[in-house]
Amino acid sequence: MTTSSQEFTAEEIVLEGVTKHFPNLSRPAVDQVSFHVNPGNLVVLLGPSGCGKTTLLKMVNRLYEPDAGKIRIGGREIHSMSATELRRHIGYVIQQVGLFPHMTIRKNISVVPRLLDWDQEKIDESAKRCLEMMRLPIEYLDRYPRQLSGGEQQRIGLARAMAADPPILLMDEPFAAVDAINRAHLQDELLEIQSKMKKTILFVTHDVEEAFRLADRIVIMRDGKLVQFGTPLEIVTRPENEFVEDLVGTRDILRRLSLLSVQSILDARKKIDEAPHPARRDSSEAPVVRADEDLRSALSRFLGSTGDKIQVEDEDGRKIDSITLADIRTAIIEKIATNKEKEKDELPGQ
After folding, report:
1. Whole-prediction pTM value?
2. What residues does 35 pair with on adjacent strands?
């Protein structure tokens, strides 16, 4: 049976009680993990080495088979189709890039479109489009991987994953092997691509800052188990337990602010009150912060100004809202209240 890309248009990923055992481990590598990835969301699997995040990722495209549980993509259980057809509709990006050294960049990018029997003109158009998306010269199409830098090779790896326009991307620590500057650039490019194409992405990392910079929602794992699943704001302000607090550094208020974006305040406030706030939009003299900057940067703007609010701009420089010092305080006050309740509960005789 041939599976067309149209069958994956819903793009959701649902895991139900997914479990994986390996003979050499005393505990399951993945233990009864369940969560739901909404279409078009970028969900990060975060946790220390050996927590099961890569094993979980590999079960989504059947590089590993689960011992128990179900995985559904677009409403279909993944075992209802062949592994080959499943993988042709899922982009896969790994840390080691995995480019074929004997193939040109053009042929590397075109591997999946060729398997899907695209005509040559469509294949060539896809290769050029992907290279432009990665901001690399078209001349690179006729080069070989060894002629590119590590950062450029990683861009080609992402381009190859995107070539057949799959609705789902699986990314296993894709930027871990590049230097800090290139890593930041690659993160920016992924966010830009995601804002335009809205793929459903599962992204594995052990880097907390990377997770909070990229994620719509975060899955925190430990010893094969799902510890917490939520938005970055929920995880920072309402950590499930001490392990999550230590992992994301929620006891350090400045670090907590650096993990949250200004956009997280706008999103949280919108859920509470959908009505416009005219009083917040009339301060043309106020300092400006971008929605994707962290709250530590926003706090710095307040300290350097005499006003009581900051204008918020989108990536194109359009003013979209404003925030106040009270908004920042609200973003962390729930965490303070939660800690107080926890300490009260732990008092003897309570």
Report:
1. 0.73
2. 15
